[in-house]
Structures are given as structure tokens and as C-alpha cells.
Amino acid sequence: MKESNENPLGLENKTYSIEEFGATLRNKFGADNNISDVVLGEIFLSKYPMYSCKIKKSKNYVTQKSCGCC
Fold first, then answer.
1. C-alpha separations of 47 from 1, 13, 59 in Å
2. What is the pLDDT of residues 33-48, one digit of tens each?
3. Bridge partners, residue 16, by sequence
4. Which of 22, 52, 53, 65 has the fewest beta carbons closer than 10 A?
5. What is the DSSP string of 3-68?
């Protein structure tokens, strides 16, 4: 399966809650079950902030300049 440069994770074209994003990462790549989906999602986003545009924003969300789209 060829992955797109715009979507190298192969995620659906939708926005996720942080819990859904972490669960999707866990299902795709596997992860330690001692780490919650929220923490897994936050760790991934801290390393790869360009994926923060895939996360549903809360009302008090502060834009991150490093994501490239916000």
C-alpha cells in the first residue's frame, strides 16, 4: 500500500478527539497498554506537531505555530 505524502499515517480524513487519535495510533502501531490513549496522543503530537490539525479543538484552544495549518 502506497502512503500519501500528505497523510503518511494513513488516517481517515476527519478530526479526532485526543482519545480517538491515541486509540487510532495504538491500533495502527501498537503501544504499551500502561499508557492511556490521551497520553499516547499527546506524546505523538509533541514529537510530530504537524498532526495537531487532526485533533478537535476545544473552545479555549491556543494555536500552535508549529503545526503549519492553524
1. 25, 21, 24
2. 898 999 999 999 899 8
3. 55
4. 65
5. PPSS-TT---SS-B-HHHHHHHHHHHH---TTS-HHHHHHHHHHH-GGGGGGBPPPTT----GGGS
